[in-house]
Amino acid sequence: MKLICIGRNYAEHIDELQNERPREPIIFIKPDSSILPKGQDFYIPEFSKNVHYEVEVLVKIKKVGKHISKKFAPTYYDEIGLGIDFTARDLQADLKSKGLPWEKAKGFDGAAVIGKWISKDMYENLDKLKFSLLKNGENVQNGDTSLMLWKIDELISYVSTYFMLKKGDILFTGTPAGVGKVSPNDYLSGTLEGEKMFAINIK
Ligand code: ZN
Fold first, then answer.
1. 11-16 long-range CB contacts below 8 Å, 24 or more apart?
2. pLDDT above 90 as % of the chain
3. Gap from CA of 15 to ligand 1 centroid (Å)
4. In the prediction, which pLDDT does 17 show?
5. 132-156 burial, b for 16+ CB within 10 Å, e for fewer?
6. Is the full-model pTM beyond 0.85?
7. How distant, in Å, are the alpha carbons of 13, 83, 130 from that of 127?
8. Is the pLDDT of residue 65 over 90?
9. Separation of 174 CA from ligand 1 center, angstroms?
10. What is the Å distance from ligand 1's center to 123 Cα?
11. Which residue in 18, 32, 41, 176 has the most C-beta neighbors within 10 A?
């Protein structure tokens, strides 16, 4: 399975990293080996001095699909989650400046946190989901899917024109503003519509 991630999907986050606003979604892939095993602590890798958290709403794909139209996109997922797209920002900045792929900065072991899954039927409107990340009990990121430049169904349609979606693939829908560095002994927890979705210790 693969993790398909969207970059720059919230205007305020684009501004905080002084990136250009994209004309179409930015896609990258994390390998399945980047998934942090459930219940494990996150160890800051020795090759980075600036690992950032990015809290994101997740969508789990439930069947194979290609060239999916926006209208039929909802039939390809039943479950919504919340996770973290850990990013070695120093490495990413260096690779970006050289025009090289970001994979090392985004796809390293443990760089994908996946919380619990909730049936999409539990939510009235997937385009109005509020989510937050707390660091040591303090609110550091607040998101609302209504602020996405491209919404879930548009993303599924767009992504599936390039990559065949398979059962179990997970879509990371992009992070809102407020990304920041993690340090040893930090404690991160994420909530979606007020419900705790994951908690993780940083080492
Ligand atoms: Zn991200």
1. 11/147, 11/149, 12/147, 12/176, 12/177, 13/174, 13/175, 13/176, 13/177, 13/178, 13/179, 15/177, 16/177, 16/178, 16/179
2. 93
3. 14
4. 84
5. bbbbeeeebbebebebbbbbbbebb
6. yes
7. 18, 17, 9
8. yes
9. 5
10. 23
11. 176
Taking the C-alpha atoms of residue 146 and residue 86, their distance in angstroms, rounded to an integer, is: 23
- pLDDT of res. 18: 83
* 69 Cα–ligand 1 center, Å: 24
Virtual torsion, Cα 31, 168, 6, 158, nearest 10 deg = 120
Ligand 1 centroid, distance to 92 Cα (angstroms): 12
Residue 185 Cα to ligand 1 midpoint, Å, equals 22
Q: Is residue 173's pLDDT more than 90?
A: yes
How many whole angstroms from 198 Cα to the centroid of ligand 1? 17
Bridge partners for 61 per DSSP? 77
Measured CA to CA, the distance from residue 182 to residue 114 in angstroms comes to 17
Dig out the tokens for 56 from the structure.
């994101």
User: From the CA of 87, how far away is ligand 1's center (Å)?
Assistant: 8
pLDDT for the residue numbered 74 = 98
Flag whether pLDDT at 11 surpasses 90.
no
> What are the helix (H) ranges across 3-151?
11-16, 89-97, 103-106
Tracing tokens 């980075």 back to the chain, one arrives at 48
